[in-house]
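Give me structure tokens for this 192-residue protein.
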Amino acid sequence: MSMLAFLSYVIITSITPGPSNILMMNEARRFGFTGAWQFNSGIMTGFAVLGVVSALFTAGLYNWIPIVEPYFKLAGAVYLLYLAWQVSLSNKQKKDTEEVHSSFLSGFIFQVINIKSILFFLTVMSAFILPFHHSLFSIVFYLMITIFLGWLALLVWSAFGSILKTFLAKHDRAFRMIMGGLLIYSAVSISL
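Here you go.
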């Protein structure tokens, strides 16, 4: 396995806009970095759990992945379109929920059903880890690197939302429309 290819895939896929990144940034925009910590820690915990479950699933069903992948993609695309609709709602409709913090559990559940993350881990395992490494130590080592880099990317997006909170508040409607558009883009790119 090429370490450069592995790291490039993990870093680029983790840092590009995706549902988790967008929602963490939005939560930090609303409540600041520490105010969003409950929801964001749910997403990060879900990311780690999803990584472990995906590793077990991929290792156990390595030959079945091409058969089930289209169903994951379809379900994920539909869910992302729903999220895009929710994020893009007008201010008038969203005002009632503006002060409600999202919970750890909602972040956790969102992340474990996040199709981008599911496909991310399935790809990492099936293309970069399992074809080249068979020992439990190697698999765990590369999985830990993947989870750690994913966490860093998630925290960068959250920090970005917190740092630009005032600016984003002034341009709330445009921001929500852009975030909704990015979620639609994610849905389309995943389903292709």
